[in-house]
């Protein structure tokens, strides 16, 4: 890595650590959303750096849909145990009991129940006034116009026309009773920054990010991973086959596509990311519906 790029990464790291420390200083009961993905892993690493050698001064919250990849669950439990983090797992049990799933109810409705409502319920239950998230501005248009301190009303909803100015890295954390803040310390990072930092800091990540032969189903130009429990969810004409592939982003297994890739290590992932000209979010089915990401965020989606 060039000296110039390393300096840029250190500047991004310093900015993110400053934001994390600022939140802990200003808010009564913050929590860090932990999705187990690469951005979430970088965010957690930055938080550990921010308070080292002391333990994290807040819990990790995983809003579990029940549809995450089994490799994500295995990594989550092992890594949180290894670092001694207090992990809280919350699910929308009512929706799960009713059999909520993307095939029968549609992706948007399923996501609204299991992710958005699950998150809102978890934040209300924990009485959290600030929640860290790993969203970046380069991922998607609505995220590009969101502030680092993103105000949410008493219903957890976001108003894109009612955002506070953030000049010279000065963040206003004042809120009224019932309001909360979603905080995005890595807003200014790019996907390339994330991969370079993971390589530089040797941050552990879910093995799904590395290419290998995987059993896949091709669906609308997406590679959907196939598991035995998905047998009843196959569409007409779909046939699982082995494909050399990896994931650029991770979400629920029925709604997250992989890419064809031969990148089996971090150096090869960095090279592949540098050559890519398309957003990593294109493999997330939730981003392709008629309901825009901005609409979802207004409803409380992270």
Question: Briefly, what is this?
Answer:
The protein is an alpha/beta fold and 302 residues long.
3D architecture notes:
The protein is α/β, with parallel strands linked by helices. Helix content is 37%, strand content 15%. It has helices at 3-26, 38-51, 70-83, 93-97, 102-105, 107-126, 141-144, 191-201, 266-275, 293-299; strands at 30-33, 59-63, 87-90, 130-132, 149-152, 180-183, 212-219, 222-225, 241-246, 259-260. The mean pLDDT is 87.
How far apart the termini lie comes to 33 Å
Q: How many β-strands, per DSSP? A: 10
Radius of gyration, whole Å:
19 Å
The ordered H/E elements are HEHEHEHHHEHEEHEEEEHH
Low-confidence stretches at least 5 residues in length (pLDDT < 50)? none
Count of individual helical segments = 10
Integer average pLDDT:
87
Strand order of the largest sheet: 3-2-1-4-6-5
Fraction of residues in H or I helices: 25-40%
Can you summarize the main beta sheet? Answer: 6 strands, mixed
Question: Would you tell me the structural class of the helices and strands?
Answer: alpha/beta
Q: Which overall shape is indicated by the principal axes computed on the Cα atoms?
A: globular
Instruction: Name the beta content range.
Output: 5-15%
What key attributes describe this structure?
alpha/beta, 4-stranded antiparallel β-sheet, 10 helices, 302 residues
């Amino acid at each position: 890595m060039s000296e110039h790029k390393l300096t840029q990464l250190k500047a991004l790291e310093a900015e993110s650590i400053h934001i994390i420390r600022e939140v802990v200083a200003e808010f009564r009961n913050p929590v860090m959303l932990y999705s187990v993905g690469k951005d979430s892993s970088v965010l957690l690493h930055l938080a550990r750096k921010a308070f080292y050698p002391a333990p994290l001064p807040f819990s990790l919250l995983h809003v579990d849909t029940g549809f995450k990849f089994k490799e994500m669950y295995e990594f989550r439990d092992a890594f949180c145990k290894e670092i001694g983090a207090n992990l809280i797992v919350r699910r929308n049990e009512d929706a799960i009991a009713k059999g909520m799933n993307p095939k029968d109810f549609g992706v948007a409705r399923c996501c609204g129940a299991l992710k958005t409502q699950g998150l809102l319920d978890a934040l209300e239950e924990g009485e959290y006034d600030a929640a860290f998230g790993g969203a970046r501005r380069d991922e998607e248009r609505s995220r590009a116009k969101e502030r680092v301190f993103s105000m949410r009303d008493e219903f957890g909803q976001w108003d894109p026309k009612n955002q506070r100015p953030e000049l010279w890295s000065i963040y206003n954390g004042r809120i009224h009773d019932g309001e909360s803040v979603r905080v995005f310390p890595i807003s200014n990072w790019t996907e390339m920054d994330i991969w370079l930092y993971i390589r530089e800091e040797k941050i552990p990540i879910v093995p799904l990010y590395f290419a290998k032969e995987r059993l896949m189903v091709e669906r609308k130009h997406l590679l959907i991973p196939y598991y035995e429990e998905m047998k009843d969810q196959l569409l007409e004409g779909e046939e699982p086959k082995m494909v050399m592939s990896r994931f650029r982003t991770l979400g629920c297994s029925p709604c997250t596509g992989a890419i064809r890739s031969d990148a089996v290590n971090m150096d090869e992932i960095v090279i592949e990311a540098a050559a890519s000209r398309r957003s990593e979010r294109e493999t997330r089915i939730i981003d392709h519906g008629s309901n825009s990401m901005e609409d979802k965020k207004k409803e409380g989606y992270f």
